[in-house]
Amino acid sequence: MASAACNRARLAVTASAFALVVAAGPALAQDAAPSQDATSVGDIIVTAQKREQSIQDVPIAVSAFSAENLDAMKIEGGSELMRAVPNVSFSKNNFSMYNFAIRGIGTKAVSAASDPAVAVSFNNSPLIRNRLFEQEYLDVNRVEVLRGPQGTLYGRNATAGVVNMIPNLPSPDFEAMLKAEGGNYGSLRGQGMINLPLGEQFAVRVAGGLTQRDGFDYNSFNDTNINGRDLWSTRLSAAWTPSDRFRANLIWEHFNEDDDRSRTGKQLCANDPGPETVGDAIDFNDAARSHLSQGCRAVSLYDDASYGTPNGGAAAIVFISGVGAGFDEFGNVIPATNVTLDQMNPYFGVTQSRDMRDVATYFDPTYRAKNDVVQLNLEYDLTSNLKFISQTAYSKDDFRSTQDYNRYVSNVIFNNIDGAYNYIGEKIPQTAIVNGYYSDPQLGSSNRMVSLDLSQSNNKQWYQEFRIQSNFSGGFNFNVGANYLDFKTQDDYYVFNNLFSFVSEYFYNNGSPSPGSPTLTTTACDETAIKECIYVDPTSLDNLAGDGHNYFRSKNVVHTRSWALFGEGYWNLSPEVRLTIGLRYTNDEKVSTPYPSQLLLGAEPDGSWGASTGGSISRGYRAMDDIKQNWDAVTGRLVVDWRPREDTLVYASYSRGYKGGGANPPRADINSEVVQYQSLAETFDPEYVDAFEIGTKNSFYDGRVRLNATAFYYDYTDYQVSQIVDRISLNENFDAKSMGLELEAVFRPIPDFRIDANLGFLKTKIGDGEGSIDVMNRTQGNSDWMVVRPWLQVPSNCVAPTKHVETILQSPLAADFGVVALSALCSGSQRWGTFDPNFDSILPFWAFFGFTYDPMTEAPNLGRGFTADLSGNELPNAPRMTANIGAQYTFHIRDWDLTVRGDYYRQSSSYFRVYNTDYDRLKGWDNANLTITMENMGENLVVQAYVKNLFDKAPIVDAFTNSDDSLLTTNVFTLDPRIIGVSLSKRF
Questions:
Q1: CB 389 within 8 A of CB 467
Q2: Helix%, strand%, coil% for the chain, nearest 5
C-alpha cells in the first residue's frame, strides 16, 4: 500500500511537471477561464442519440452535467449521480461491483455470467467491467444519464438506461490546470491537466489525479482506521486532423487503487438461539438447539437486536472442531476447542457497537484495482452529408480485495492442550495447537475462530463499432451501424476459515485409526494417502495456489461474444412533427465453464467418491462441461415528437429492451448418491422490457425557467434477481411492472440566483403468481415445519416436519445421535445416516427412531422450504420518491465572485429484497451538502470550500443477506461520513 509520503511526493512531481510546461509557454495561455454556470443544462450539447444535439431537442429522458455542474454539486464520481437524477439509486454490492438502478431497474443478479442493466460507457464505448463508479472524475467534458431502454443505439444491457462519461479531448488551443485540495481524514487530493497543440493538425492532452485519505471506519479490535483511499488516474489523449474530411483521436486511461477500502460496511445479526422447546421435547442440549437455529433471525435492521452476533453453534464446522486432542491426568478427553454440547456458540457474550462506522474485525481489509482503457476513434466525411465513424476500444480490469468475513471477533476457541496425554499415558508432542494457537496456512496463527474472504476478478474486453450517419438538409436522416463485443472474465471468490483447515487436517486427515480419536495427528493428502482425505493448500494468501479443499472457492469463467446490426431513421413529417424509428438485431453467445466448489470434499485414494464427504477429488478444481447459451433479440424504439412552439418539445415513445441471461455459478461437487443433494436451476433466462413514455421539455420566461417532465410505464418479463443459495448466487426471473413520473426544473429569476430541482415518483409491482423461497423464513409461518441445519458439506438449511424433530429430541438416542439425526432430516448420507430405507447408509435412523422420511419427496421444494408469494411486492432498491433541490447565489466582491450553494437530497423508504418483509425494509434517508466558491476570472483562480454529508448521517442505503452456512448475517452499506475540504485551482 502506498504511503501518504509517496502520495505527497507523487503530487509534488505532478505539480512540478505541469508548472514547468506552463512556465515554458505562457504566451499560449488563454485570456480567461470558463465561467461557472452551475447545473445549467440549456446549452449542453449531448450525444444521447450518438449525434450532437441540444439536450432540449432530444426526445429522451436524459440528464447531463458539465464539469462545472459536477464540481458545483460536488459530484465527484459515478456513485453520487443519484443526488442529481430523478428515480436513480446506487449502492455497492457484496463482491466487486455495484448496483446502479434507474427507475427501479438495476443489477440485482450477482454472477460472472450476469450483465448490468445500466450500460456504463466511456466516450460512447460500453464497458462491462469498469471502475467508473470508484474512480473520481478527471478532466470530464460531461456526464450523460439516459433513463429508459436505450438498446437501439447503445446495444445490449441498456434495459434500464445508460451512463456515459465523455472526457475532454485535445483542442487546438493551449490550456492547463492545476488543483490541490486538503481536508479532514488526512485527505490530500490533486489534479492537473495540460492541452498542448503541436502544429495545426495534431494536439495532445494529458491529465492526472490522485486521492489519498485515512480511513472513515474504526476497527476497535486492531485499533486501526480502515476504509481509506489511495488511488490515482492518468489519461493521455491525442488528436489528429490531417484534413477537413478526416479526424482521429486516441485515448488511453489508467486507474490504480491500492488501499484498505471496505467492500461492505457493518455486518448485522439478530441472534437466533434456537427453540427452547419442540412440542413436548423440553430438555435437550445446546448442540441440538443450535442445530435448529438459523444463526440470525429476520428482524428489522433498525432493531437493537440486529446489532448482536450470530449463534455460531449453528455452524456445523464449530460442532466438528471439538475433536479429541488427548487425555488429561484423570483420563478425561481434552477437546481441541472449547465448544461443548452445552455451550456451542463461539460468539457467546460478544456484542457490537451501534456506530455504523465502528467495526471489530480480526483482519483489516485490502483493496487493489487496476483498469486500463484504450480507445481509437476515426471519423471520415464520405460526402458533405455522410459521415463514417469507427470506434475501437480495449479494456483490461484486474481486481483483488480481502476483508474479514465475519466482521466481528469470536471468543478464544482453541484450548491449550500442551499437557495432553495419549491413551497409554505418554505426553503428546503438540504440533497442531501450540500454546492454544492453531496456525492456518493462509490466515496465520490465532487462538480464535477467524475468517477472511478474497474476491478477485480478471477481465478483458474488445469492442468495435462502425456507423454511417447522415446530415441531410431535407426531411430524412439516418444512423446505421454494426458492432461486435468480445468479453472474457474469470471471477474467483474465496472464503477462508481456520476451522476449515483444522477440521481438514485433524478430523478428516487424522492419522489415528479412526476420525475423532483423541489425538491430534494428521497425514498428507497426496499419492501416499491410504484413506479418504482433503488436500490442505500450504501456500500463503499472497501466493495462493488455489487448489486446496480447506477453503471455499467459487471459480467462474465466462466468455461472451455479441454482435449487432442497428439503425435509426428520423423523418420530419412537418416543421413541427418528427418521427423516429429504430431497430436492432442482437446475437449473444455466452460460454460458461463451471468449476464446482470443493470445500471439505475429499475422495478415496483410488479416485472413488469419498463416503464421509461426498467428494470426488481430493485436490484441485475440475472443470465440468461448458454451458453454451445463445440468444437473439430484435429490439428498437418508435418516437413521435412535436414542437408546438420554439421552446416546447412534446414526445411519446415505445421502446423494447433486452438483456441476456446466463449460467448460475456451479455448486458444491457432491455426489448425490453419497449425500442427498437438492437440485437447483443451472441457468437463468434473459430479461425483456416494453417501455412506454411521454414527456415534455420546456423553457419559459425568456429562458429563466426550464421544466422537463416525463411519465413512463414498464412491462418487464423475467427480471433477474439473485440471492445466496447453496453458497452460490442463485439467479431467478420475475415478471414485473413499474410506472412513474419525473420532473426536472431550473429557475433563474436573476443572473446571480438560481434554484434547480428534480423529483421522481416510482411504483413497482412484481407480477401475480410469482414466488421464491425466502432463506430467512423457509417455513413461512407453518408451525408443522422447522428449520434444520444440514450436514457439514451441504450448504443450505432445510425444513423438516416438527413432529419428526420432536421424536428425535425425545428419544434416548438423542444424546449420541441427536445432532446427526437432525441433519439426516435434510438429506441422507451413506456415512452419517438416513431416514429413507431406500437410501443406503451405515446408520439406518429410520430403524433407530421408528419413522421413515424422504426429504426429496415429502418436503416442500425438496426440503428447501415453502414458496413465498411475491405478487404485488415492490422491486428491490426502488424507492417511491427521490427528490433533490439546490440553490445558489453569487456575490460580486471587487475582482472576485463568491458563490454559495446548498444541495439537499431525499430518498424514501424501499426494500433490499423482493420479499418486502420488515427485515427487508430500508428507511428513507437524506443528505445535505454545502459549497462556497470564490473565483477570480481575471487571474483564472478558484478557491473552494465544501462540506459533504453536512449532518454526518450514516443511513443504511442497501443490504445483502449472506448464505445459510454463514449463519444468514447481513452486510449493510452506508454513506461516507461528513467530509470537509478546501481546494485551490488555477487555469492557464
A1: yes
A2: 10, 45, 45
End-to-end CA distance of the chain: 34
Nearest by Cα to 693 from 82, 103, 51: 103
**Cα 942 to Cα 588: distance, rounded to the nearest angstrom:** 49
Q: What letters, b where the CB count within 10 A reaches 16 and e where it falls short, cover 470-486?
A: beeeeeebbbbbebebe
What are the cell numbers at 898? 463568491
- Per DSSP, what are the bridge partners of residue 496? 452
Whole-number pLDDT of residue 516: 43
Q: From CA 288, how far away is CA 923, in angstroms rounded?
A: 37
Q: Which residues in 504-626 belong to E strands, given as ranges?
A: 552-572, 577-595
Cα(428)–Cα(415) distance, integer angstroms: 14
* Pairwise CA distance, residues 892 & 828, whole Å: 80
Closest CA to 549 of 496, 506, 510, 624: 496
pLDDT of residue 35: 38
Query: Angle, nearest 10°, between helix axes 802-810 and 814-824?
Result: 160
Give the type of residue at 859. A
Return the pLDDT at 707. Answer: 95
The pTM assigned to this predicted structure is 0.92
Which pLDDT score is estimated for 43? 58
- How far apart are alpha carbons 513 and 531 in whole angstroms? 11
3-state secondary structure of 58: coil
Q: How many CB atoms lie within 10 A of CB 680?
A: 14
Distance CA 217, CA 221 (A): 12
In b/e form, how buried is each residue of 242-264, taking b as 16+ CB within 10 angstroms? eeeeebbbbbebbbbbbbbbbbb
Q: Is 831:612 a contact under the CB 8 Å cutoff?
A: yes
All three cell numbers of 599, joined, read 470445500
Q: Strand, helix or coil at 710?
A: strand
474-521 pLDDT per residue, tens: 899 999 999 999 999 999 999 999 999 999 999 999 876 544 456 788
Identify the sign of the CA torsion 318, 324, 325, 331. Answer: positive
Least Cα distance to 140 among 198, 70, 81 occurs for 70
Cross-strand bridge partners of residue 867: 773
| Ranges of the chain whose pLDDT falls below 50 | 1-41, 514-516
Extract the C-alpha cell encoding 691: 417501455
Render 456-502 in DSSP notation, one character per residue. EEEEEEEEEEEEEEE--SSSEEEEEEEEEEEEEEEEEEEEEEHHHHH
Q: Which residues of 137-167 are buried (b: 16+ CB within 10 A; e: fewer)?
A: bbbbebbbbbbbbbbbbbbbbbbbbbbbbbb
> Does residue 490 contact residue 457 with C-beta atoms inside 8 Å?
yes
Long-range CB pairs of 298-302 (<8 Å, 24+ gap) are 298/270, 298/776, 298/777, 298/917, 298/918, 298/919, 299/270, 299/918, 299/919, 300/918, 300/919, 300/921, 301/268, 301/919, 301/921, 301/922, 301/956, 301/959, 301/970, 301/972, 302/923, 302/956
User: Would you list the DSSP string of 927-980?
Assistant: EEEEEEEEEETTTTEEEEEEEESTT------EEEE--GGGTT-EEEE-----EE
How many CA atoms lie less than 13 Å away from 674 in the CB half-sphere?
20
Report d(CA 315, CA 969) in Å as an integer: 12
Q: What is the pLDDT, as a whole number, of residue 110?
A: 76
Q: Where are the alpha helices (DSSP H) in 312-353?
A: 316-320
Q: Within a 10 A sphere around the Cβ of 538, how many other Cβ atoms?
A: 10
Beta strands 161-167 and 118-122 are: parallel
From the number of C-beta atoms within 10 Å of its C-beta (0-12, 13-18, 19+), residue 402 rates as buried
- Rounded Cα–Cα distance for residues 918 and 909 (Å): 12
How far is Cα 792 from Cα 534, in angstroms, rounded to an integer?
Answer: 14
With the C-alpha atoms ordered 593, 594, 600, 602, is the resulting torsion angle positive or negative?
A: negative
CA 814 to the chain's CA centroid: 44
